[in-house]
Amino acid sequence: MTSEIRRAVRAVLCAALLGLAALPSAAQDVPDASDVSAVVDDAARDTARARLVDALQDGRASLEALLVESLLVTYGVDATEAALAQAADGRPDDDDLRMALGFTQALAAVEHLVAGLQRHGVFPDRAGMASIVFEMGGLSGALREVFPPPDDPQPISYADLRALVARWIDDLARATDTLESVDDPAVALALRPMRIPLDVGGGRRVALGDVLGWLDDEHADLRVRFDLGDAAWLAGYCHLLAAPAECLLAVDFDELFERTAHRLFARPVTRYPFLVGEPSRRLGDFQWEEITDIVAAIHLARFPVVEPERARSALAHLERTFALSRLSWERILAETDDDAEWIPSPSQAGALRVSVTQPMLDAWLATIDELERVFRGERLIPFWRGDPAAKLGVNVRRVFSEPTCFDPVLWVQGTAAAPYLEQGRMSTLSDDAFARRMGEVFHGDPLLFAAWFN
Does residue 387 belong to any structural domain of this protein? Predict the structure, then answer.
């Protein structure tokens, strides 16, 4: 309690020293990030950025006093990141500052991707197959909130899409570099993450909770105190998100884009402009044109490898994800407090009030160990074709380190796996006993906990 009072007093005093009348102080109301109509004036952002940089570099304010959440809500992600990044140059030993910067850089990665997709009118058809898929995933509300049909969608070419994905990877890399440099056990960053707004373009700001589908009565005001374990957790998640993006850029999907991009974007630049905006003939919940496009997509699903080094980068991202997951749990288990933990140890309650038991932790760490063995090539994934007596398995490491033309249909059929078949020890990940064990330990939701634990 004493430390909380001291922190609050320091916040008020330092805010007064800063003289930032435009900033909400500890005694002021924080703007509501759920107000999607809020627009921040660029001049106000620039002024706040300059004053924040000066104050931080001069050592006149602690990061606590700057109320990072208030900066994000009031001035936006990019302005906050720019201020923190410049300040970090002058205070290289301030892990609180680097923690806030890394968190903000991760938010910026999400913001840039969401805004880029929205700018090009992603998901132009809100009926048909797309609607069914999002309804099944419970994401239809988030889709409408985050990606409303834009008034003036911008054209997008195949090169534009690759550039958008490449920026996503670069943004994530910037966040991981910062977060992995944090090593002070006392580091902390208290936020209400679901209220943080993202600028999705067109003067619209959408709360992070809406993007995640979590801005409900239960989670809207969720307070989380991110600490050293969470720095490793978020860095690992950034690596995990970068891996599939690297895989996408490793292959040439130009022909698929040319013939089916009108299902994903409002104004794709292709050789077939007559596919955009055509009237549809409905067959129940589907469109005849949609069905033919799905068939075409399956027919075109054969992707030559054009940047093999990206496949190897994806492998490195996944291996780093596993290492950081283990590191995050080492740090979490070393904690002695219990203050709004994002991921709690078995002895902590946690902000989400979801218990993590010792059997859960043991099962998760055993899974990480086995995944590492698989991606190191020390364990094989059992082959699903041929005579089981042959005891053939797929060397997953070689799939990434020796990439060939990716054909998902032939992978399902089995012949695409032929170059990677070996005899050796099989992974336990495919055992029925493993699936039963995970289901029992995680109360029937192992994938949900895996998404949380990373």
Answer: no
State the alpha helices, DSSP H only, in 91-154: 95-119, 128-136, 140-146
Spatial separation of the C-alpha atoms in residues 57 and 59, rounded to whole Å: 5
In a domain, 454, yes or no: no
Separation of alpha carbons 231 and 253, rounded Å: 35
**Type and span of the H or E element at 48:** helix 42-57
Q: Whole-prediction pTM value?
A: 0.85
Which SS3 state, helix, strand or coil, does residue 281 take?
A: coil
On whether residue 200 sits in a domain, the answer given is: yes
Task: Note whether residue 179 is domain-resident.
Answer: yes
Full domain range(s) for residue 74: 2-120+155-222
Q: Which of 66, 63, 85, 74 is nearest to 29 (CA)?
A: 74
Q: What does the alpha-carbon distance between residue 41 and residue 421 come to, in Å, rounded to a whole number?
A: 59
Asked if 64 and 10 touch (Cβ cutoff 8 Å), the reply is yes
Q: How far, CA to CA in Å, does 442 sit from each of 221, 430, 453?
A: 26, 17, 12
The answer to whether the beta carbons of residues 225 and 340 sit under 8 Å apart is yes
Instruction: Read off the DSSP letter of residue 150.
Output: P
Specify whether the CB–CB gap between 91 and 50 falls below 8 A.
no
Rounded Cα–Cα distance for residues 320 and 265 (Å): 33
Q: How many domains does the chain have?
A: 1
- Give how far Cα 286 sits from Cα of 46, 130, 148, 293, Å: 49, 10, 21, 12
In tens digits, the chain (454 residues) has pLDDT values of 334 433 333 333 233 223 332 333 332 333 333 332 333 445 555 655 565 566 555 554 445 445 688 788 888 899 899 988 988 888 888 999 999 999 999 999 999 998 999 899 887 665 555 555 555 455 555 556 666 777 789 999 999 999 999 999 999 999 999 999 999 999 999 888 888 888 887 778 888 887 776 656 677 788 899 999 999 999 999 999 999 999 999 999 999 999 999 988 989 999 999 998 777 676 666 678 888 999 999 999 999 999 999 999 999 999 999 999 999 999 999 999 999 999 999 999 999 889 999 999 999 999 999 999 999 999 999 999 999 999 999 999 999 999 999 999 999 999 999 999 999 999 999 899 999 999 999 999 999 999 999 8
